[in-house]
Structure formats: C-alpha cells, structure tokens
Amino acid sequence: FHIGEREEKCIIEDLPSDTLVVGNYKIQRWDIHKHDFLESAPGLGMFVTVSTPSGEVLLSKLYGPQGTFSFTSYLSGEHIICLQSNSTRFVAIAGSKLRIHLDIRVGEHFLDESAVQTKDKVNEVSVRLEHLIEQIQHVSKEQDYEREREEKFRKTSEETNSNILWWAIVQTLILMSVGIWQIKSLRDFFIAKKLV
Asked: Which residues cross the membrane (predicted)?
C-alpha cells in the first residue's frame, strides 16, 4: 500500500488469544527524478504500534526501513496494527510517497529448513512432528475462537429477533386501538349529525 511520509496506516486483525503474529515490512520512497520507487529508503524507519481490543498498547517500537515485528495476543478480538514512518520532514514539504510492503503471518511457528537439513533423519522427523503439533494446536485455537464468535453472534441474533417480535406486537396493538377509536369517533359523529 502507499502512504504519505508522516501518514499513519492502521490494519485490523481479528485474533484468538495466545496467538503469535509476525509482520515483515519494507519501505520504498518515491524518487521524483527517476519517477519510480527506490529499492530502499535509507534514513527512514517505521514506528509500529499494536493495540489490544481493550485499547491497551501491546507493542510500540521504532524499527528501520526494513524489518520484522512480532507479538503474542493475550486477548481474543480485533487487534489494531498501526504503521507510521519516522520522517522528520515537515508535513507541508513531505509530499513524498512511500510504498510499504507488509506481510503479516498469524499463528505460525516457522520451521527452519536449514536446521532440519543439517540434522539426521530421526531429528528431522521429530522437528517436523513438533511443527505439525504446533500447527494443530493453532487450528484448534482458531476453531475455539470461531465457536465463541458464532455463539456471541447467535445470542445477538436471538435478542434482535425477540425485540422485533415485541415491536411488531406493540405496533399491532397500537393500530388496533387507533382503528377502534376511529370507528367509535365516526359512529358518535354520525349519531350526533343524525345521519344514522
């Protein structure tokens, strides 16, 4: 995505609790003379802030023009990841665009292939087995979190349906009482005018 030099961009990630999140990013600055983005942006850095669903700041750190940040969620819900360059130029002058390459991986424990290749076959199988077990645990956490969200959604839907039913009953009673009142008023009017 593209942002201005002092502009902040926030991304919302819906995460279950106890989940590892790893983000890799790279900044490229627009070059006016070449009319293209430079491969790197020396002198620029990225200020990364992560907030929990309750508004608590989980991570707030300044990184270089290219780097990796990671955090573990301890609450389930929408976590807000905000990125902002540390440009020291004034906003009026900072017309330069930045291109941010961002890769966010949720719940992955990376398997180091080079370490696996150097060990013998038994250790390779055990490392891969541990990696698979971690992935299964992550999938299980995801499913539990989705069940929890589905239960909240179902409760909200049932409450809404109940409120709609009562509102329909109240509307029907009001319409019936207004209709009866109109009939009585018209009958009294016709009797008073001696039309009936």
From this structure: 164-183
